[in-house]
Design a protein that fits this description.
2 domains; eight-stranded mixed beta sheet
Length: 209
């Protein structure tokens, strides 16, 4: 966004992906410098769109969910539980387990992030994170790394995780909440269902094999 993108820049990004045995994915928003789009057009294909959603938490007032889902904030002693649930939930997407574990470990290690679990009748069925950051005079809650175990999908787990984090964010004085999901996905549907609105979208460029 702030200047031309070179082949060396792109090479550095691709090198960072190599240890994890996945094809490089680059998310491009429209304000990016045109040189980036020109470079990506040579060896990359658009494989989808990532949508970013936002909500002013002063407007958030979601009714209680009438179900048996228990969503809790995890303590320091429960980080391994979060990591295992996150990996199991994302594994069905075909991503390498090593990469999924690294992403979950990074979330668990962040001092600005709260970790959440969702369970029914004592059975762990989902996990998610929420980072709270200061942006100028505002506090922003970033909802991310949402994961539902395969056997739990379609049971309201993701929606419950979203609602709980929004309530916690509002209680902790956050002004704005943001979340991201692939366009047309179930996650995107759930995000909009709890009240977040589309802010902008990015094209997902994946390197050709």
């Amino acid at each position: 966004m702030f200047g031309p993108v070179t082949k060396d820049d792109l090479y550095a990004i691709e090198e960072a992906y190599k240890p994890y045995d996945v094809q490089p994915e680059i998310y491009m928003c429209e304000p990016a410098d045109r040189s980036a789009f020109d470079l990506l057009s040579e060896h990359y294909t658009i494989t989808g769109h990532l949508c970013d959603y936002h909500m002013s938490l002063s407007d958030f007032d979601y009714p209680d969910m009438a179900n048996d889902i228990d969503v809790s904030i995890l303590g320091l002693n429960d980080h391994e539980t979060f990591i295992q649930a996150s990996v199991e939930g994302f594994r069905s997407n075909g991503r390498p387990e090593g990469l999924l574990k690294l992403l979950a470990e990074n979330a668990a290690a962040r001092p600005d992030t709260l970790l959440f679990s969702a369970s029914m009748h004592g059975e762990l069925l989902g996990a998610a994170g929420m980072a709270i950051i200061d942006v100028e005079d505002s506090k922003v809650a970033i909802l991310y790394i949402d994961s539902c175990l395969p056997r739990a999908r379609g049971r309201g787990i993701h929606k419950a995780l979203l609602v709980k984090r929004l309530r916690v964010a509002k209680d902790r004085g956050c002004d704005l909440a943001i979340a991201s999901a692939r366009e047309g996905s179930i996650s995107a549907h759930n995000i909009q269902k709890v009240g977040l609105k589309l802010a902008y979208g990015c094209k997902i460029y994946t390197k050709d094999r």
